[in-house]
């Protein structure tokens, strides 16, 4: 087919060049010495200067003008046979356009004498002979008009403008040059004079010849008259070296002559055409003559490169022809098939781009001799369209050469393409109305579409287009869409012809079905939109109404187009349509004959029907061309179907791999668009056939998946089209062999459906922290009738960032299980929840479990280590089966995995952050799990400490403390690990510790406790902490001294418990300088005493001297079992641990030292009588060890006492301070205070009783 299209393009380009007939310029020699032929310089100059350089403004219809450049001219000597033949036949209006458009009189002489004697008489004779042909000049001359009466009466045709060209030879001397100048000046004086002005052979650029000549209402020469002299003489100067000067003047004068002739003949032609058109209802009127005259006018426009006006003439000719046919039918000559044309086999090949295929102008000329009525409408309409199409194509080429914009060039191409579509559509209907055979119509349409498509893809000179409409183009979607329609139309007709001629009986009908489906909407389109969307696709394709599918691809000719053409025409009856011939007298050429101007036979598209091989090649080529055009205009769906429809031909030719590729694309489109019946009936079985031949395991799995997905929607025999067992056997037998059709993963479509599981794993994590192992559970429903063993399965997670999908991360572990095996699912789910997920998956893989997708329902567990914070959407499941990778998408309900910043999963902290200086004690560590921690093991280590026992007290557990089992020693460490088990929420770990007596008190680093907690939370993790404990004394001892007399001091010993559990004080001994201090009360009366946490034991001793620097305290005590523990109180955990431990029955000793303060002033207070409310009583303070002149101040709480006396002063020599005091309230009142000096103020406490009783209790004063 490519060869045919290339030949068509070359033929069109050749025919366009053949129609480039230049304007004829007649050359007449006036010298005694011949110039043409004898002077090679002049002959070569004229042969190379055949285009007029200067632009010419030609006046055309209705005052419009066209600026034309590079008009071609052809110089013919007067004795030339071609020119003589033109003169002989120029009397007919059919050949007016062939007449010379100018005469050039050549003069060559060396001096004035030669010019005067020989050249000038001859020149005047020739000019006067030419002038006798002017209007009103009289005489018929040699070129008197002949032919129709209308043309003979038109004087404008006789005008042939002339000019004199002086040929100046090379001058070697100044005298010779001077002679040439004199000769040239004399020629100008002779023939530029006003004598020749009235002949109207020349008029200046300001005159309007065409407008007045076309009017035909007055003297046609009035507008061409020129007052004064006219410039009609020029020269060519031959210089040494054979260089020639003077072309610019000659080109200008020739352009003026051509302009005069063109506009005069245009007026004559318009007059002739109008007269013939007005007379078309006259009996004996011949359309053949009108056809020739109108075509000649169009050809004259074409000579002048005014292609638009030439196209308009052919439009008008088409309308007149249609009107003539209608008039003939109305007079009783009804249209018949014979009048329209014969169904000659030679006419099956269209010639819509070959106007000379049947030379209608030659037929018309013979008809003028009496053979009227031999023109057939079948030939005329194709001829006229061919002429119009070639002109429009030349207009496109001219616009490209002139540098017109890309948009303008595209618009012209679009006009040509739409005109071709309209013509093929309307002419096809004419053939059908005239009962042409269906095979004849199909062949004509096939060849016509192919010819039009070929010419639309060429730039010029027969070359294929390399712009937006060529194969490499991408831009012109409109033209690409038209080309796609043409190729699809052509392809459809060829398939139909193949079925008719038994070239493609097996699959032609099925391919036509698929071809027709390309114009219908997808069955998945919204309902209620009407049309084919609401009908069954197969019913639509089988319906006879689909036979009009091809016509819908072609733009229909409308009445509006005809009306617009009528308005544009010159005459009221004119409309738009086709074109005429170039006037070449060529004989009819049968199909396959020689192309004019070509040495190669004309190609024919119908040769593809002569053999099955040729037919198949054309079917494939047409499908390829149509597909490429569809892709360029955005119709990818049609492109895929067009290519895949011919897969059976490719299979027959052994190109199975290419057929498979095309069928895969077609099946995918059918599947996505919902053409399931077509998919099951044709495309999918054929695809499976190719895949089986190629051993394509991925393709087989994809086809089987597609089949299983749609199988439930098929009915009847269509549901049995694919052999599932054969595919299964092929997959298993091929193993690692066979060819893979694609490197990408195979899409399982709906054969395996994956969604979020609502059971079995519903409590697995969807919210996770960084470095967590998130376990997701999915339901996997498999439609495969056999189990599929998979490897390397992973669920792909798409990470979202600000609404945009970012990185894709796979899960690291996947496990499959049958949904019906609930016990196994429950066990594995619990194992994942409470243990290490990687270990659980590894153990299952070691047992050969979890790698098979069973038919029916399955549950899939997928785990991923969350390494980055963000939100992750499960998108698809990927795995490897049968040696290649497959994929299946996840629905929108697949859930979302949210990973947040990592927070401490488990925390550890000491209960008080302290360790006591005891040989045997308890320490508590608070442990909290945020979430769940499984299989916890905890241990502690510190240098110098020994850990004996451990108990756990869990939050919310009302039972006794849980003694933890020993999990064994850690490597290199003496201290054991204790099994804490599963941890939820908070727990307190209580450890029994020995060896803390020597810890340095008051230092934060007194004991560094290294704790380690191992637990499982998706992964096995270890939390290690170094806890800094402050070493503190278990008891705090303090003393208060009371001056009882000058030589006797009472010592108040206070011992406060710092332990968090209760103790029993068994003994207490106070020594000073190694000697025991006697107590005021026997110890047996006070001890043993129970001390709750924070309680204080107070004992009184009498000290005779304060000369010692310190006092030593030794306290013997026991840990008490549960003393001081209230249910839910702060020491409940300690009490519970003490209850469970054996530490509570062992005696311990605490030793400490108390510093004795330095000796200073002391005072003893006494009351002078009973204290009664509202009565004055004297309070006396006796001061000891004070210096004389020691200052004092007495204070009391306002509102309780009234003081009378000197409340501030100095202590006298007697050391006594006395004041009267009146108590204002009854009860126990704080006594007034005596402040001595700056420090060492003394005070007391007086208890005031109601009247009748009084008691004085003294509190420490110093």
Automatic annotation (TrEMBL):
Annotated stretches, region: Disordered: 127-147, 514-536, 576-606, 1242-1262
Biased amino acid composition, Basic and acidic residues: 576-590
One cellular-component annotation, GO: TRAPPII protein complex
Residue ranges occupied by any TRAPPC10/Trs130 N-terminal domain in the UniProt entry: 228-394
The protein, known as: Trafficking protein particle complex II-specific subunit 130
Biological processes annotated in GO: early endosome to Golgi transport; intra-Golgi vesicle-mediated transport
Polar residues biased stretches: 1252-1262
Organism the protein comes from: Chloropicon roscoffensis
Taxon lineage: Eukaryota, Viridiplantae, Chlorophyta, Chloropicophyceae, Chloropicales
Listed transmembrane segments: none
Domain of life: Eukaryota
């Amino acid at each position: 087919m490519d060869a045919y299209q290339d030949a068509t393009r070359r033929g069109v380009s050749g025919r366009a060049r053949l129609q480039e007939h230049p304007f004829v310029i007649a050359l007449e020699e006036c010298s005694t010495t011949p110039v043409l032929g004898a002077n090679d310089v002049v002959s070569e100059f004229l042969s190379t200067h055949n285009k007029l350089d200067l632009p010419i403004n030609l006046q055309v219809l209705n005052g419009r003008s066209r600026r034309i450049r590079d008009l071609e001219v052809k110089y013919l000597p007067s004795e030339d046979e071609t020119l003589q033949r033109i003169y002989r036949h120029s009397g007919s209006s059919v050949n007016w356009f062939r007449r010379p458009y100018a005469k050039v009189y050549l003069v060559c002489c060396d001096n004035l004498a030669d010019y005067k004697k020989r050249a000038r008489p001859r020149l005047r004779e020739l000019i006067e002979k030419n002038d006798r042909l002017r209007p009103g000049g009289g005489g018929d001359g040699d070129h008197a008009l002949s032919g129709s009466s209308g043309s003979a009466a038109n004087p404008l045709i006789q005008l042939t403008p002339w000019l004199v060209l002086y040929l100046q030879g090379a001058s070697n001397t100044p005298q010779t040059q001077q002679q040439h100048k004199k000769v040239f000046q004399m020629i100008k004086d002779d023939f530029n004079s006003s004598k020749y002005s009235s002949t109207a052979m020349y008029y200046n650029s300001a005159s309007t010849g065409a407008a007045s000549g076309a009017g035909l209402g007055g003297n046609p020469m009035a507008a061409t008259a020129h007052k004064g002299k006219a410039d009609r003489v020029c020269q060519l100067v031959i210089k040494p070296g054979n260089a020639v000067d003077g072309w610019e003047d000659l080109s200008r004068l020739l352009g003026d002559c051509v302009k005069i002739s063109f506009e005069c003949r245009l007026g004559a032609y318009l007059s002739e055409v109008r007269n013939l058109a007005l007379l078309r209802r006259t009996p004996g009127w011949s359309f053949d003559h009108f056809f020739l005259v109108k075509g000649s006018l169009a050809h004259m426009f074409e000579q002048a490169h005014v292609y638009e006006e030439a196209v308009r003439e052919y439009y008008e000719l088409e309308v007149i022809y249609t009107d003539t046919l209608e008039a003939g039918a109305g007079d009783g000559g009804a249209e018949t098939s014979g009048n329209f044309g014969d169904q000659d086999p030679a006419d099956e090949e269209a010639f819509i781009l070959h106007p000379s295929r049947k030379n209608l102008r030659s037929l018309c000329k013979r008809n003028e001799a009496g053979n009227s009525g031999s023109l057939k409408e079948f030939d005329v309409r194709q001829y006229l369209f061919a002429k119009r199409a070639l002109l429009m194509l030349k207009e496109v080429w001219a616009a490209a050469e002139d540098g017109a914009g890309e948009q303008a060039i595209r618009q012209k191409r679009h006009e040509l393409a739409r005109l071709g579509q309209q013509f093929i559509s309307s002419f096809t209907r004419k053939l059908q109305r005239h009962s042409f055979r269906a095979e004849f119509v199909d062949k004509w349409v096939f060849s016509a579409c192919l010819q039009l498509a070929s010419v639309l893809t060429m730039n010029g000179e027969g070359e294929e287009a390399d712009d937006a409409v060529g194969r490499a183009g991408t831009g012109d979607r409109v033209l690409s869409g038209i080309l796609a329609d043409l190729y699809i139309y052509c392809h459809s007709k060829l398939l139909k012809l193949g079925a008719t001629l038994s070239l493609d009986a097996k699959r032609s009908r099925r391919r036509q079905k698929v071809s027709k489906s390309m114009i219908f909407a997808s069955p998945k389109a919204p309902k209620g939109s009407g049309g084919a969307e609401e009908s069954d696709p197969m019913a639509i394709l089988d319906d006879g109404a689909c036979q009009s599918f091809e016509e819908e691809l072609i733009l229909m000719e409308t009445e509006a187009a005809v009306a617009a053409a009528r308005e544009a025409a010159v005459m009221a009856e004119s409309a738009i349509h086709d074109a005429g011939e170039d006037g070449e007298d060529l004989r009819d050429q049968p199909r396959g004959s020689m192309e004019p101007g070509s040495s190669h036979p004309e190609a024919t598209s119908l040769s593809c029907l002569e053999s099955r091989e040729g037919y198949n090649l054309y079917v494939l080529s047409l499908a390829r061309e149509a597909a490429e055009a569809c892709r360029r205009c955005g119709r990818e769906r049609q492109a895929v179907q067009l290519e895949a429809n011919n897969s059976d031909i490719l299979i027959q030719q052994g190109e199975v791999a290419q057929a498979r590729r095309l069928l895969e694309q077609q099946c995918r489109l059918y599947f996505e668009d919902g053409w399931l019946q077509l998919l099951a009936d044709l495309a999918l079985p054929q695809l499976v056939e190719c895949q089986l031949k190629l051993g394509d395991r991925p393709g087989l799995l994809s086809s089987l998946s597609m089949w299983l997905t749609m199988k439930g929607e098929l009915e009847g025999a269509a549901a049995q089209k694919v052999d599932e067992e054969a595919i299964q056997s092929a997959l298993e037998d091929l193993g690692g062999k066979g060819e893979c059709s694609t490197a990408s993963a195979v899409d399982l479509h709906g054969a395996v459906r994956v969604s979020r599981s609502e059971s079995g794993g519903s409590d697995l994590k969807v919210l996770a922290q960084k470095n967590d192992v998130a376990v997701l559970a999915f339901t996997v429903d498999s439609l495969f009738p056999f189990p599929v063993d998979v490897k390397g399965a992973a669920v792909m997670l798409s990470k979202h960032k600000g609404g945009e999908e970012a990185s894709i991360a796979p899960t690291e572990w996947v496990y499959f299980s049958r949904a019906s095996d609930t016990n196994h699912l429950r066990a594995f789910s619990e194992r994942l929840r409470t243990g290490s997920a990687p270990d659980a998956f590894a153990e299952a893989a070691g047992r050969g479990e979890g790698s098979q997708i069973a038919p029916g329902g399955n549950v899939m567990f997928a785990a991923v280590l969350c390494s980055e914070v963000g939100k992750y959407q499960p998108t698809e499941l990927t795995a490897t089966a049968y040696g290649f990778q497959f994929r299946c998408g996840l629905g929108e309900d697949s859930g979302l995995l949210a990973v947040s910043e990592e927070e401490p999963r488990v925390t550890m902290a000491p209960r008080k952050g302290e360790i006591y200086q005891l040989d045997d004690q308890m320490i508590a560590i608070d442990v909290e799990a945020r979430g769940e921690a499984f299989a916890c093991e905890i241990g502690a280590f510190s240098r110098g400490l020994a850990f004996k026992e451990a108990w756990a007290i869990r939050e919310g557990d009302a039972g006794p403390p849980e003694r933890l089992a020993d999990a064994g020693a850690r490597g290199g460490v003496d201290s054991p690990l204790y099994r804490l088990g599963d941890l939820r929420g908070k727990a307190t770990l209580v450890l029994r510790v020995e060896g803390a007596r020597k810890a340095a008190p008051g230092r934060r680093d007194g004991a560094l406790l290294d704790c380690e907690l191992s637990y499982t939370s998706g992964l096995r993790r270890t939390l290690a902490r170094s806890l800094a404990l402050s070493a503190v004394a278990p008891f705090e001892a303090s003393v208060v001294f009371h001056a009882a007399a000058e030589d006797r001091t009472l010592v108040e010993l206070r011992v406060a418990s710092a332990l968090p559990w209760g103790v029993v004080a068994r003994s207490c001994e106070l020594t000073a300088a190694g000697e025991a201090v006697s107590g005021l009360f026997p110890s047996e009366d006070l001890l043993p005493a129970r001390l709750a946490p924070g309680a204080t034991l107070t004992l009184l001793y009498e000290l005779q001297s304060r000369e010692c620097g310190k006092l030593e305290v030794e306290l013997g005590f026991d840990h008490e079992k549960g003393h001081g523990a209230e249910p839910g109180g702060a020491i409940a955990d300690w009490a519970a641990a003490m209850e469970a431990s054996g530490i509570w029955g062992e005696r311990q000793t605490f030793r400490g030292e108390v510093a004795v303060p330095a000796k200073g002033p002391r005072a003893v207070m006494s009351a002078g009588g009973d204290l009664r409310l509202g009565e004055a009583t004297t309070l006396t303070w006796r001061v000891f060890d004070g210096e004389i002149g020691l200052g004092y101040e007495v204070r009391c709480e306002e509102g309780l006492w009234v003081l009378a006396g000197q409340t501030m002063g100095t202590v006298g020599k007697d050391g006594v301070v006395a004041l009267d005091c009146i108590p204002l309230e009854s009860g126990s009142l704080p006594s007034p205070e005596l402040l001595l000096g700056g420090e060492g103020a003394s005070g007391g406490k007086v208890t005031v009783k109601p009247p009748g009783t009084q008691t004085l209790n003294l509190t420490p004063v110093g």
